[in-house]
Amino acid sequence: DKCYFSSSTADFPQIKIDNYDNSDEGDSRIINSSFVNNYGGPVDMIYHNSGGGIIISGNKFLADYNNSTTVAYTCDVSALTTNAGVLLFQNNSVEGSRLLFTDTAGSPGATYTYQRINILGNEFDGNRLAEAIKFSSNNAATARFGNIVIADNTFGDEGVSGGTAYSSIWLHSVSDIVIS
């Protein structure tokens, strides 16, 4: 609560959530804090690769508007050893960065999913080189993310760069989604 995180290197995320012992234990909160990428290069502000039950609320994520490599929150399911879930990302201001839900290892046989993802009441503005919210997996055969609600968010300038247009939301490898 009320912390300030500033990046000076790309090597480490500002916060890493890494709970291999209890992959769906939770009730963790990251609230009312500021995250700033003044490094200028690629930075994960919050990197989450195991564990569940997290609330990220009332935070400010700020990065260069022309830097597509800054990610406010990354959920990487490639390390899951069981189904996990429960994310509440609400009432945040995300400027010049984005949310990324991914499977970086692309485990073709993996069947574990991250469920119950709620992205509510946020302001996304200004990452002109990427989507505001992106769900993507290297494993096209299995939906790695499910039971998703994206509601009451405001999307600003996702724009066009170098002839490429970027959507506010990109969905791949998802199931059971509601956008309102």
Structural class: mainly beta
Tell me the helix content. Answer: under 10%
- The counted number of beta strands is 20
Which whole number gives the mean pLDDT?
81
Instruction: Give the end-to-end Cα distance, rounded to a whole number of Å.
Output: 29 Å
Backbone CA Rg? 15 Å
The strand order across the widest sheet is 1-4-7-10-13-16
Number of discrete helical segments: 0
Order of helices and strands: EEEEEEEEEEEEEEEEEEEE
- The share of residues in extended strands comes to over 45%
- Uncertain segments are none
Question: What is the multimeric organization of the chains shown?
Answer: single chain
Q: What about the largest sheet?
A: 6 strands, parallel
Shape estimate = globular
Task: Quickly list its features.
single chain; 180 residues; mainly beta; six-stranded parallel sheet; 20 strands; 0% helix; 47% strand; globular
Describe this structure in words.
With 180 residues, the chain is an all-beta fold. Helices cover 0% and strands 47% of the residues. The strands form 4 sheets. The protein has a 6-stranded parallel sheet, with no helix packed on it. The radius of gyration is 15 Å and the shape is globular.
Fold blueprint:
Layout: E1 4-7, E2 15-17, E3 28-31, E4 34-37, E5 43-48, E6 54-57, E7 60-62, E8 70-76, E9 84-90, E10 93-95, E11 98-102, E12 114-120, E13 123-125, E14 133-135, E15 145-151, E16 154-155, E17 160-161, E18 164-165, E19 169-170, E20 174-179
Parallel strand pairs: 1-4, 2-5, 3-6, 4-7, 5-8, 6-9, 7-10, 8-11, 9-12, 10-13, 11-14, 12-15, 13-16, 14-19, 15-20
Antiparallel strand pairs: 17-18
